[in-house]
Amino acid sequence: MTRSPDVLIRKLLIFVHHLFDQWNAPIWFPERVQREFPQVNVVNLPDYKRVDEEIINAEIVIAWSIRPEQITAAKKLRWIHSPAAAVHQLMFPELVNSDIILTNSRKVHGPVVAEHVIGLIFALAKKIPDSTRLQEKHIWGQQILWDEMPRIREVAGATLGVVGLGSIGWPVVKSAKALGMRVIAVREHPEKGNDGADAVFGPAQVDDIFQQADYIVLAAPVTNSTKAMANAERLALMKPDACLINVGRGPLVDETALADALRQKKIGGAALDVFPKEPLPADSPLWDVPNLLITPHTAALTDKLWERHYSLFSANLGRYLSGEPLLAVVDKRKGY
Description:
Layout: E1 10-15, H1 28-36, E2 40-44, H2 51-54, E3 60-63, H3 68-73, E4 79-81, H4 93-96, E5 101-103, H5 106-125, H6 128-136, H7 142-147, E6 159-163, H8 169-178, E7 182-186, E8 199-201, H9 206-212, E9 215-218, H10 232-235, E10 243-246, H11 255-263, E11 269-272, E12 292-294, H12 305-322
Parallel strand pairs: 1-2, 1-3, 3-4, 4-5, 6-7, 6-9, 7-8, 9-10, 10-11, 11-12
């Protein structure tokens, strides 16, 4: 590839590696960036061994996480893009107090996660996991499923509580309203509008959501004020047949309190897609908690994932090179 000698070359460093294959950038991704943006020098690392030396003169980075000392050493770094929606792992002083722009992938994951949420609501309402277990035992469980509380029920007319009206929350609201659900929500700034919900509350009114909703969806970022927001006290406010769904981040839920509430049948059920420690250890007591549906952090999975990533990042890279404001910028002071 030839470049004009008067073109300012910007270095893009990509180090995106995960045990799960789908979280890793496919080889076509950096190759496509290089073809579309010849004024960018794309360095795609196969592992983390050369990150310390390569990040020193990088201007743009795509990564899940970066160490504080790497931020300090990266004197030319101006923009970090995270393929994840949650960026709490990056909220250390060296980055927060810097002029480095941080963007995330909430626009990539939000609509897909919202689909998963609707699937979980139906699974809990129609007792799909219970039917599957009975099928494995060759049991026609019609009477069993009906007798066990909470009973199989309709979704239309139920009240859905959404905590967080961001990239996940608003498409959940839209889909739930189409199903005939009443939707109430919590957002940090209620004055921004209801995004289609029937009622919107501020953070101080989270308890109202737990008291009123038949299904509660946690889609908030992890901050000091949201950690363990679903604790024993709030779970005690829930209706005895209400269900809790967490697709935000694991630390939003006090897992011990949730397990106790389910075992004691204080709430109707729960579904968790995210956990403080992943993969969930094989000896975790959560595996055997009754009326708990576990999905292994699959809410954001789609065969179109990296095409969606490319669409967002390439649009932002074009903006960056043209000096335009970027999309999906994280407020580093707030952490989302």
